[in-house]
Every structure is written in structure tokens, then in C-alpha cells.
């Protein structure tokens, strides 16, 4: 829903981080801050409570983070608080990671199999995906016994589902249509 705005904030922060050569540091810090907000019930309630003033939220963030993270990143978080966007931090992090991948001409491919790919399968898959997307591939392998067999690949919004589970589902649909 807020993807467009999240991307605008992400691009702005990415440009600052890139100029400072701190992209990885900023992403890591943002993830830690986001985890802290999510896992600390008190902080989460303060952030999400519209009755708590922006000034109070800014004071709390200042007391927690001011001297612990880069000043420009801290300023970015304060802007998010003032613009009432701090609750969208997860989406902003996802977008900044996408911007970073785009700028490095990379794409993440999530691959699900029942058993781990061997080296030749992995290399062949990466080669085919690099040709298809004309980008360097970051392969994230997931073992998923529920797919029964075959391979499932997701790159962005593209899905290649060559799993036995999917074939069974397709057969079930055909049986219901004809039956």
C-alpha cells in the first residue's frame, strides 16, 4: 500500500548512505532498530500509539539511539517519526535493499527444493537465471519437503513452479472441471 512512499524514503536514504560509503552499515542498523521496535512491546506500543506526541516519540528515540548510530541515519529516523512513517520501517528496509540490489545489477532468486541442489545444478540454475534476467543472481536456497519434488523459483514477482505439488494441484483442478 505504501510501497511508493517507502521507496522514496529508501532512495533518499540510500543516496546518503552511498555517498558516505555506509550502505551496508545503514541497512544493518535499520534491521536492528526494526527488530528492537518489533520485539520490545513497550517501544512498539509507544511507536504505534497515535495519542503519544511526536515530540515524546522523538525524545524516546533520541535517548535510545542518538549516540549509537550514525548521525545521518539518526536524523532519518527522526524524520520518519515527524512524518508519522516510523511504523513503515519494515517496508522502507525492504525497499532500500531492493535499491541496493538494483544498483549492483543483482537480483535475489529464492529456490525451493526437497533436497539441496548439488554444485552443478546450482551453477546451471544460476547461469540460466542470469541469462533470463541479465543480472547477477543471489541464490537463496530453501529446503521444503511439502513440494514433494521438483523445483520452485521466485525472482521478484516471477514464479517458476516446477514442483510435483503444483502438478498434483493442476491435475486436481482438471479433474474437478471435467468431472
Helix share, percent: 55-70%
What top-tier CATH class of the largest domain fits best?
Mainly Alpha
**Number of structural units classed as domains:** 2
* CATH architectural designation of the largest domain: Orthogonal Bundle
Arithmetic mean of pLDDT: 94
Element-by-element helix/strand order: HHHHHHEHEEEH
Class from secondary-structure proportions:
alpha+beta
Report the end-to-end length measured between terminal Cα atoms.
40 Å
The CATH topology of the largest domain: Peroxidase, domain 1
Number of alpha- plus pi-helical segments: 8
Strand content: 15-25%
Task: Please tally the β strands and state the result.
Answer: 4
GO cellular component, one term: plasma membrane
GO molecular function, one term: proton-transporting ATP synthase activity, rotational mechanism
Subcellular location: Cell membrane
Protein name: ATP synthase subunit delta
Describe the overall structure:
Strands 2-1-3-4 form a four-stranded mixed β-sheet, sandwiched between helices. It has two domains: 3-101, N-terminal domain of the delta subunit of the F1F0-ATP synthase (Peroxidase, domain 1); 105-178. The protein is elongated and about 60 Å long. The chain has 179 residues and is of the alpha+beta class. The protein has helices at residues 3-19, 23-39, 41-48, 54-65, 71-82, 89-103, 119-133, 164-178, and strands at 106-113, 136-143, 150-155, 158-163. It contains eight helices and four strands. Helix 1 (3-19) packs across helix 2 and helix 2 packs antiparallel against helix 6. Helix 7 (119-133) links the parallel strand 1 (106-113) and strand 2.
